[in-house]
């Protein structure tokens, strides 16, 4: 029975990793690449971490598993709901493998809270409310054991406030410390027992790239030679920390196969999405209601404790803190189309469900395709219907239209469209990195041929991991075992039910009820990444 070690690196860029492996900076990754297979890994259409990681571990597209962003909009109640493993309507590989009798350990995977009951152990990722939240680990007592041994679990770097305050050395140290601590925790867990599939994800690399990608390359539009001289290349240091951790994990786990994967890549930030809410206001597609009570509450907010303020706001609105933060006081009766900054994106929802919807969609698409930057250059490449991107029972959770920006944009100062000019979106000066369509894939192990992997997508990773571990691959998956790897044994497909051979029921995620304080914790982390 083969042992598989899966290492996830959030936001790993193929171009950067190839450069640093060639320079001898990432020796462990270079060794794995040279002994096996490598290539780009295509992410999900909206390039957000929740949709990409969930497609990776389930093998299906977001229309099947139901997770699109950090908060997904429910049109029936006009409310944004925080995503979690409860909303994931598909089985991750650690559950499928557990049902087939394999032992699994999973550490720091996004959207894995609350943790399922598995044959092994789970430590949830940074979308959990906290390391003391019910369901943070399985078994449940593992959380207190980790806390006694390692202290509080470093869920998220949250470096935005440090960057804004000019405390770059502290931001750099927090990223590196969090990566180091997560590596130590994972190594300790692997040393405690034998596992057939071990999965460890490093997410702090993403935060480093959002705020310090401009230090990696003098060609970056925001390159800062003075800052780089003072604190070095933070992104490179983060990846060197991960490279060392991978070496230690390989030594601890002694796997037969190692897969290194990322949910998306990284590219210089252009800040285009941050202008769209103001543009929608100016074009009259979405209208806002003047709310005296809201204004008074905002004025008094500085006098109230944050937790109390959030609870009062959520109870008063009735549709939750996330909706309040993401949409504000929209006048629904006067709104035909709206947008909101969620997960670093600003896509489009349509409010009219009747025959007018097609004409509104056409108007929005035509107008956005005509948008220009302040120098008159086009900025939006395409505006795509959700039905052309996703399939499955949960397509209705996706925005109606996905906005695809040109990939050759520099940092935007504003947009002009249909005689409307919008400038200076909030927070545009801090972020220097954004998500890109391709992450990385490296695979090494017994019997794997050496060479390039072509055309791989995140949904292909789940069936590939199950195949390498000797578990039947469910028939219903959108992804497929990578053809470059299928030579390792024969591919076994599960029966028409789409379920792996079972040795007993596996419980759905267990945890406490959703709470406005949990929403507040996630909102704070997303603001720390510049996603809101």
Topology:
Layout: E1 4-9, H1 14-22, H2 27-35, E2 37-42, H3 49-58, H4 62-65, E3 71-74, E4 79-82, H5 93-99, E5 104-109, E6 120-124, E7 137-138, H6 142-150, H7 160-164, H8 168-191, E8 197-202, H9 204-212, H10 225-231, H11 234-253, E9 257-261, E10 265-268, H12 276-283, H13 292-300, H14 306-317, H15 321-327, E11 337-339, E12 348-350, H16 357-369, E13 372-373, E14 380-385, E15 401-405, E16 414-417, E17 420-423, E18 433-436, E19 438-445, E20 451-452, E21 456-457, H17 461-468, H18 516-528
Parallel strand pairs: 1-8, 1-9, 2-20, 2-21, 5-6, 5-8
Antiparallel strand pairs: 2-19, 3-4, 6-7, 9-19, 10-18, 11-12, 13-16, 14-15, 16-17
Keywords:
532 residues; alpha/beta; Alkaline Phosphatase, subunit A; Gyrase A, domain 2; 10-stranded mixed beta sheet; 21 strands; 17% strand
Explain what this protein looks like in three dimensions.
- The protein has 532 residues and is an alpha/beta fold.
- The protein has two domains: 4-269 and 433-528, Alkaline Phosphatase, subunit A (3-Layer(aba) Sandwich); 272-288 and 330-423, Gyrase A, domain 2 (2-Layer Sandwich), CATH 3.30.1360.
- It has helices at 14-22, 27-35, 49-58, 62-65, 93-99, 142-150, 160-164, 168-191, 204-212, 225-231, 234-253, 276-283, 292-300, 306-317, 321-327, 357-369, 461-468, 516-528; strands at residues 4-9, 37-42, 71-74, 79-82, 104-109, 120-124, 137-138, 197-202, 257-261, 265-268, 337-339, 348-350, 372-373, 380-385, 401-405, 414-417, 420-423, 433-436, 438-445, 451-452, 456-457.
- Strands 1, 2, 5, 6, 7, 8, 9, 19, 20 and 21 form a ten-stranded mixed sheet that branches. It has a three-stranded antiparallel sheet with strand order 13-16-17, covered by helices on one side. It has a two-stranded antiparallel ribbon with strand order 3-4.
- A hairpin with a 2-residue loop joins strand 16 (414-417) and strand 17 (420-423).
- Helix 8 packs antiparallel against helix 9 (204-212), helix 8 runs parallel beside helix 11 (234-253) and helix 9 (204-212) packs antiparallel against helix 11 (234-253).
- The radius of gyration is 23 Å and the shape is globular.
- Residues 292-297 and 496-506 have low confidence and may be disordered.
């Amino acid at each position: 029975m083969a042992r598989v070690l899966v290492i996830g690196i959030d936001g790993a860029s193929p171009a950067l990793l190839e450069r640093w492996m060639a320079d001898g900076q990432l020796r462990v990754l270079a060794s794995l690449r040279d002994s096996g297979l490598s290539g780009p890994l295509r992410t999900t259409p909206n390039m957000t971490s929740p949709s990409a990681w969930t497609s990776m571990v389930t093998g299906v597209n977001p229309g099947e598993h139901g997770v699109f962003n950090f908060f997904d909009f429910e049109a029936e109640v006009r409310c944004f709901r925080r995503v979690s493993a409860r909303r994931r309507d598909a089985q991750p590989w650690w559950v499928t493998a557990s049902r087939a009798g394999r032992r699994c350990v999973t550490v720091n995977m996004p959207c894995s809270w609350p943790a399922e009951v598995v044959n092994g152990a789970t430590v949830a990722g940074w979308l959990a409310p906290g390391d003391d939240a019910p369901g943070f680990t399985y078994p449940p007592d593992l959380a207190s054991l980790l806390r006694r041994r390692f202290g509080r679990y470093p869920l998220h770097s949250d470096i935005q406030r440090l960057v804004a305050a000019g405390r770059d050395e502290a931001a750099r140290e927090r990223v590196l410390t969090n990566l180091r601590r997560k590596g130590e925790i994972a190594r300790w867990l692997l040393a405690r027992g034998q596992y057939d599939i071990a999965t460890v994800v490093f997410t702090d690399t993403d935060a480093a790239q959002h705020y310090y990608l401009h230090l990696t390359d003098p060609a970056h539009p925001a390159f800062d030679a003075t800052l780089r001289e003072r604190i070095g290349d933070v992104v490179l240091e983060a990846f060197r920390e991960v490279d060392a951790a991978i070496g230690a994990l390989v030594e601890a786990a002694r796997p037969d196969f190692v897969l290194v994967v990322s949910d998306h890549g990284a590219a210089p930030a252009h800040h285009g999405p941050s202008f769209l809410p103001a543009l929608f206001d100016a074009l009259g597609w979405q209208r806002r209601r003047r709310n005296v009570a809201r204004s008074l509450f905002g004025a008094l907010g500085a006098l109230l404790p944050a937790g109390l303020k959030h609870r009062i706001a959520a109870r008063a609105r009735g549709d939750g803190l996330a909706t309040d933060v993401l949409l504000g006081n929209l006048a629904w009766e006067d709104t035909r189309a709206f947008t909101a900054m969620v997960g670093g994106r600003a896509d489009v929802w349509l409010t009219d469900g009747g025959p007018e919807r097609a004409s509104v969609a056409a108007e929005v698409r035509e107008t956005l395709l005509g948008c220009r930057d302040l120098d008159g250059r086009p900025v939006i490449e395409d505006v795509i219907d959700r039905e052309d991107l996703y399939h499955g029972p949960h397509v209705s959770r996706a925005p109606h239209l996905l906005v695809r920006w040109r990939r050759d944009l520099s940092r935007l100062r504003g947009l002009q469209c249909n005689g409307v000019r919008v400038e200076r979106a909030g927070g545009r000066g801090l972020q220097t990195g954004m998500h890109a369509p391709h992450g990385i894939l490296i695979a090494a192990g017994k019997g794997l041929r050496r060479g390039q992997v072509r055309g791989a997508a995140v949904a292909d990773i789940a069936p590939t991991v199950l195949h390498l571990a000797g578990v039947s691959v469910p028939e219903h998956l959108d992804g497929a075992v990578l053809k470059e790897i299928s030579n390792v044994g024969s591919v076994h497909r599960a029966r028409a039910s789409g379920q792996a051979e079972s040795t007993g029921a596996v419980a759905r995620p267990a945890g406490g009820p959703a709470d406005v304080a949990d929403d507040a914790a996630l909102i704070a982390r997303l603001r720390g990444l510049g996603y809101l």
